[in-house]
Design a protein that fits this description.
Helix content: 25-40%
Mean pLDDT: 90
Order of helices and strands: HEEHEEEEH
Shape: globular
Number of strands: 6
Structural class: alpha+beta
Distance between the termini: 39 Å
Largest sheet: 6 strands, mixed
Number of helices: 3
Strand content: 35-45%
CATH architecture: Roll
Low-confidence stretches: none
Number of domains: 1
């Protein structure tokens, strides 16, 4: 691996800040599994790059492209990176903010699996409301 998992996570989030989900496709392994089951119909378990990119488009649409994600802290192994992510967005009722733990698994330099754990599920529900 040219870059370790932590460097890849930082690069991935830097690219996400451009608000162009299609730019992320090369980062997503064809067998990707993306899981945030607690948020149900909006996230749940997504399979493959198409479903993940669709969810990212929906997140931008739900917030008028104001959705922002920042990596606050990371820890890595040879193939995984766990990151604390702070997020925010503007919604018609005012700003919404939250924090989650994201765990990314890599195959080469592509994300093969991602699991997300909300610090406060009410924040995620407010985001999608």
């Amino acid at each position: 691996m040219l870059n370790g998992p932590t460097a890849l996570v930082h690069e991935f989030y830097a690219l996400r800040r451009r608000n162009e989900p299609e730019l992320l496709r090369p980062w997503l392994h064809p067998a990707l599994r993306w899981c945030e089951p607690e948020v149900g119909r909006h996230m749940g378990v997504l399979q493959g790059p198409d479903q993940v990119i669709d969810m990212m488009h929906r997140a931008l649409a739900a917030t008028g492209s104001s959705f922002r994600l920042e990596v606050a802290a990371t820890i890595e192994t040879a193939t995984h990176c766990s990151a604390v992510i702070h997020w925010s967005a503007e919604k018609p009722g005012g700003p919404v903010r939250g924090q989650e733990m994201a765990v990314y698994g890599f195959r080469g330099e592509q994300i093969i699996e991602a699991f997300f754990f909300a610090a406060n599920l009410a924040d995620d529900h407010a985001f999608w409301a």
